[in-house]
Write a structure and sequence with these properties.
By secondary structure, the chain is α/β, with parallel strands linked by helices.
Length: 1186
């Protein structure tokens, strides 16, 4: 997704949080402006069974809309999205997708999973934030976001409640900012305008080149040919992080701040790696590559593997582990070496140490951790025997000489960061470094491009190639020529015991191979290798002092590159070496005395080739002395000079004589060969003259025949064109048909088949031309051969349903294969066409429909289907039994026939009825009216439009009658209870209360009538107090039996007094909320509501252990609603018992509501409190409504 090229793109902030992260996220949100211009996706750690309330909690903390993610949600700016529990989430093209997190690793790492998908989808517009939490989830996700050019944040340890999660990310080095949640919120708003939009001026080529020059000077790495887009994004990212808007200012910052230059260098060198990245590629090595490497290999020849761009070593160690797993018991006997290089010395040093954090458990299986790693306090250390097989070095792939004689190069996801020129150079280096038919392994997004002539695909899907031996090796010029092709011996490698430590003879290191590679380069004289035509095939060392290119057209022939005198000497020496098959050595004068004074020795060695017709010669040049300096020569005597000169002239004369003799011998040999060739040519010329005369005669005959052939050829050409077009039509038709089709000959051999036939019938291209009967098709059809022969013999189509060996159903059609009858009266049958149509789903549907039809037909409930014009189109046995009409009678009448005249509902009106059952009335054939519970199902067409209505109807007449009788009895019981309460209240108030009042009065008058001592008076006062409490208690009991406030003041004041009295008695905080309660309510509904509330409060005080109670009273649509809820201990559902031992219990509360035509409901959960509700009509009468 190219977010930078999309003007409507906006940043998406992914926030990972676990324990303590919610508070941090709220602080982060409070620091944002009302419209931040970005979207926020919160990925929390929640238990699978946890019911999340994050949406409601966060909605109270921010003005931004908050919603729980649903699969398919499109991410919009200024929104907050929350991952629901027990789900995994990905984002693709700005749309969130949920999946069940049944996979254990996904559930354990939901933050990493979403962060990685966001990095792929949003690239540099992705922002990752890791808040408080335990574990390491989120670290790899932040690494991926940073690698894609995004911005990463982690919560400061001083503000995090749990440090593990943010600290893990900080230690990995992939965090840009470590801030408090508030500071993260402020910085996010700034990061929103990162990248090109953040700059005042776009970055031109000038500032970019100057920054790259700084990097080249400081680090020695030339980034000029890297992909310019990637370089710009990395530089712009660093500018955004440093709040620098102008490229020139950032250039000055880099010159002054070496740390920022280092950070930019690390950002450009993206170090994203992991153990066994893309496991399928490693499996492909085991199955298809390693066996070939071991084939015909000597036990003393090591397998050599190079991993360029190795980063912190995971890829190199993965290659070593993978190879050891493949070798199994042979691992100790077969030597191998893995060379791992990277341009960044920091990551190379970490790779040498081989210590990795505990989080690699997500990448490495437990078995591999046990075999190849050592557990430490900090994580896992690579086992020594693996470490010893891997050699690490800081090496520039593009500048330094490569390793050679390699069996395998694993360079994955490195070329994608290089420009075309650097990619071409890297592939040349790989070709140079590999053995003939050596293996090159690339990343899934990489290819060999224009080097398909040098590399051939071995596994296209896994990007595995092999070096083509037919391709010529490219010549390489390296920027550091002083270094040798292989420098393993100079590596600083602590894992191998130090630089100075000698290895024993048994070391798998290929010592002989290294000597063969290094010594010739160091000590061999300069020279060339030529063929018989004196074409130079290879240069050895520096030959510029002996051979130079001649003016004019460039060429690589020794005749054009050697000077005249030297060429004569070379030709003579080559001729002698050729004739004698021995080495020839001569001393000659230097060809360029001004540069190489003195003499040189030339040596020509013939090289044997496998083909005797190919001749090759090795020519070596060696300086053997120089003329003495003028000062020393001036001190010699003239006689010495002359003597030296005479000796030289004699030597030259002898050499010239030998040269002349060689030329004469060569010339005589050439003349003899020419004489023989001339005689052969004369004889051949006579034969050719005779043949020419014969050709002249045949020419006239051929010309006549040719005219006839031209005419025939034109006709054949037209026919071929028609045939080609027909063949193309047939090929395209077969390739695009999504049905298994097989074309058979008259002998039942397979001619052609479609692609789906390969999977359905197990056919493959090698089955063409073979009998279809011998192919053992996976069909349960033993008489297939006879059926095909009958079709061919009779020409009749056969069709039948068959099953394959997996019990899947197909519809098999066998048709005759007929020839074209345009030229003959009758067509001939020359084979058969076999077509297979998958009907498995249809068969399953038919079975399901049959079961449902049986279920509907035999159901005791009435099942009726009618169209939108009220015509009955389906009528089961249950309907016939319930309403008395037979199926034939019902199908001829309207559904309105079974409806009472005053309660008729059209089918179109039922479409709008909800799926919940409703109660209606029906009329039977005999005229009896039934109470029916009706469930409506709307049947729709493919456009979603309703076409039919299906109803399931159950007779509830008897149940309704029983309900009415029960309500009547309950009403009578409740009425009797209330009358008894009134009687008891009156007797207590008027009887016992008055008696106690009289006793108190008499007791108070005793001190005036009788002389009492102080002790007796005190007792009288104490008895008076007891009487007062008794009178008060009788008044309270009387009040509870018949609440006077309910009668005198109404329902709402009575409830207030009841709540106040309960609060004082039980010490529980009570809140009464009322809404639109009328002042005057009929006594029956008012008393029912009051009694329900009274009993509920009594139960709460006795059993719930609540500290808070809420009572809601409201009036809507001529009904009064009561709700009583508490925060007590609650109880389990289905506890079918009274709520109190001595009270009216749950049944009486429900009976009170239903006695006045109301409804009662109760909901309670252990540990979560209890809530009950009642709904009563203001009229005090009505049906029992659900």
């Amino acid at each position: 997704m190219k977010t930078r090229n999309n003007p409507k793109a906006f940043p998406i902030v992914a926030i990972g949080a676990s324990a303590g992260g919610l508070k941090a996220f709220e602080e982060l949100l409070n620091a944002l402006p009302p419209e931040p211009g970005m979207a926020f996706v919160l990925v929390p750690h929640l238990a699978p069974q946890y019911k999340s309330h994050l949406t409601e909690i966060l909605a109270r903390s921010t003005r931004l809309p908050v919603r729980e993610v649903k699969s398919g949600d499109k991410v919009l700016p200024d929104r907050i999205y929350i991952l629901p529990p027990n789900r995994a989430m990905l984002i693709k093209e700005g749309i969130l997708y949920l999946s069940s997190s049944g996979h254990k690793s996904v559930w354990r790492k939901p933050i990493d999973s979403f962060f990685r998908s966001l990095a792929n989808d949003r690239r540099d517009m992705a922002i990752g934030v890791l808040l408080s939490g335990e574990g390491s989830d989120g670290t790899e996700g932040l690494r991926a976001i940073k690698a894609s050019g995004g911005t990463t944040f982690a919560q400061d340890g001083n503000t995090a409640a749990h440090l593990s999660m943010p600290n893990s990310a900080v230690l990995s080095g992939c965090v840009d900012f470590i801030l408090s949640p508030t500071e993260i919120g402020e910085r996010l708003f700034f990061a929103r305008d990162g990248g090109e939009r953040h700059q005042d001026k776009p970055m031109g080529e000038g500032p970019l080149n100057r920054i790259l020059e700084l990097l080249r000077t400081a680090k020695g790495v030339e980034f000029e040919l890297y992909k310019r887009g990637t370089l710009r994004r990395r530089i712009q990212r660093r500018m955004m992080l440093g709040r620098v808007r102008e490229p020139e200012k950032y250039y000055r910052t880099l010159k002054a701040d070496s740390k920022e230059l280092e950070s930019l260098y690390r950002d450009i060198l993206i170090s994203v790696t992991s153990f066994f990245r893309e496991p399928e590629s490693f499996n492909a090595l085991k199955s298809g590559i390693y066996p070939g490497l071991l084939k015909n290999r000597s036990a003393y020849t090591p397998i050599r593997i190079w991993v360029p761009g190795c980063s912190t070593g995971e890829e190199a160690y993965s290659q070593a582990i993978n190879l050891i797993e493949f070798l199994g018991k042979q691992a100790s006997r077969i030597p191998f070496q893995i060379f791992a290089t990277d341009v960044n010395p920091v990551v190379v040093e970490r790779a040498r140490v081989g210590l990795y954090p505990a989080k690699i458990r997500a990448e490495v299986s437990p078995e591999r951790l046990r075999r190849f790693f050592i557990k430490t306090e900090d994580g896992y250390r690579i086992a020594p025997y693996i470490r010893e097989r891997c050699i690490f070095a800081s090496k520039n792939l593009l500048q330094d000489p490569p390793f050679t004689n390699l069996d395998l190069i694993s360079c994955r996801n490195l070329l994608i960061y290089l420009g075309p020129a650097l990619q071409e150079r890297a592939l040349k280096i790989f070709q140079y470094a590999l053995k003939p038919r050596g293996i090159l392994m690339l990343g899934r997004s990489e290819t060999v491009g224009n080097f398909s002539g040098s590399f051939s695909p071995l596994n296209v899907k896994k990007k595995v190639f092999f070096e083509r031996t037919s391709a010529s090796k490219a010549r390489l010029d390296f920027m550091q020529p002083s270094r040798f092709p292989e420098t393993e011996s100079s590596f600083k490698d602590p894992g191998r015991g130090g630089a100075g430590k000698k290895k024993p003879v048994t070391d798998p290191f290929d010592l002989q191979g290294e000597l063969d590679s290094v010594l010739p380069v160091r000590y061999l004289p300069n020279g060339v290798i030529i063929n018989r035509d004196m074409e130079i095939l290879r240069f050895l060392g520096n030959t510029s002092s002996y051979l130079r290119s001649a003016p004019g057209k460039p060429g690589m022939n020794l005749r054009r590159m050697a000077s005249g005198d030297l060429l004569l000497e070379l030709r003579a020496a080559i001729h002698v070496a050729k004739m004698s098959a021995c080495a020839v050595r001569k001393e000659v004068a230097a060809p360029y005395p001004d540069e190489t004074p003195g003499r040189i020795r030339i040596e020509v060695l013939p090289i044997k080739a496998s083909n005797p017709r190919n001749e090759y010669f090795l020519i070596l040049f060696e300086e053997i002395g120089a003329a003495e300096p003028d000062k020393r020569r001036a001190g010699r005597t003239r006689r010495g000079k002359e003597s030296r000169r005479v000796i030289e002239l004699k030597e030259d004369l002898a050499i010239s004589g030998e040269h002349l003799k060689a030329i004469i011998e060569e010339q005589e040999s050439t003349n003899a060969r020419l004489q023989t060739s001339n005689e052969e040519l004369l004889s051949s010329n006579e034969e050719l003259q005779s043949i020419n005369e014969e050709f002249e005669t045949a020419k006239e005959e051929l010309q006549s025949t040719n005219e006839e052939l031209i005419t025939s050829s034109e006709e054949v050409g037209r026919g071929n064109l028609v045939l080609s077009n027909a063949n193309n039509d047939l090929s395209n038709l077969l390739a695009n048909i999504n049905i298994p089709i097989v074309l058979l000959g008259s002998d039942l051999t397979v001619r052609r088949f479609t692609s789906p036939a390969e999977k359905a019938l197990g056919l493959s291209p090698d089955k063409i031309g073979r009998s279809v009967v011998d192919s053992r098709l996976p069909l349960r059809l033993p008489n297939l051969k006879q059926l095909l022969l009958d079709v061919i013999r009779t020409g009749h189509v056969q069709a039948l349903e068959v099953q394959d060996t997996q019990d899947r159903w197909y519809y098999l059609i066998l048709r005759p294969y007929r020839t074209d009858k345009s030229r003959t009266e009758r067509s001939r049958t020359e084979g058969a066409v076999m077509a297979l149509i998958d009907i498995h789903d249809r068969k399953l549907s038919e079975k399901t429909v049959l079961r449902l039809a049986t279920l509907v037909r035999d159901s005791n409930d009435a099942v009726i289907i009618c169209d939108l014009k009220d015509r009955i189109i389906a009528w089961n046995k249950g309907a016939q039994k319930m309403y008395g009409y037979t199926e034939s009678e019902a199908l001829a009448m309207s559904i309105r026939r079974i409806m009472p005249e005053n309660k008729r509902i059209r089918a179109r009106e039922l479409v709008r009825v909800s799926a919940a059952p409703i109660e209606i009335q029906r009329r039977t054939k005999s005229g009896r009216i039934l109470d029916v519970l009706l469930t409506v199902t709307v049947l729709r067409d493919e456009k979603g439009q309703p076409v039919e209505v299906a109803t399931t109807e159950r007779d509830i007449t008897e149940r309704k009658r029983a309900d009415r009788e029960l309500r009547r009895l309950n009403a009578r019981v409740i009425s009797a209870q209330e009358m008894e309460r009134k009687r008891l209240a009156r007797e207590l108030h008027d009887g016992v209360g008055q008696i106690l009042s009289g006793v108190k009065f008499r007791l108070e008058s005793l001190p005036g009538e009788i002389a009492l001592d102080g002790r007796a008076a005190a007792k009288i006062l104490k008895v008076g107090g007891v009487l007062d409490r008794a009178i008060s208690e009788i008044r309270r009991v009387s009040q509870n039996l018949i609440p006077s406030e309910l009668v005198d003041l109404g329902l709402e004041p009575a409830l207030r007094m009841l709540c106040r009295e309960f609060k004082e008695r039980a010490g529980v905080r009570v809140m009464l909320r009322t809404e639109r309660v009328p002042e005057s309510i009929l006594p029956d509904p008012a008393l029912a509501i009051f009694r329900i509330a009274q009993e509920a409060l009594n139960n709460i005080g006795k059993h719930s252990k609540a500290t808070r109670v809420t009572v809601d009273l409201s009036c809507k649509r001529r009904e009064i609603f009561l709700s009583v809820s508490d925060n007590g201990v609650g109880f389990a559902h289905g506890a079918n018992r009274p709520l109190t031992r001595g009270g009216i219990g749950l049944g009486n509360m429900r009976a009170r509501a239903e006695s006045v035509g109301g409804f009662f409901a109760l909901h309670s959960t252990p540990g979560a409190g209890t809530r009950l509700g009642a709904r009563v009509p203001l009229s005090g009468t009505g049906g029992n409504k659900a």
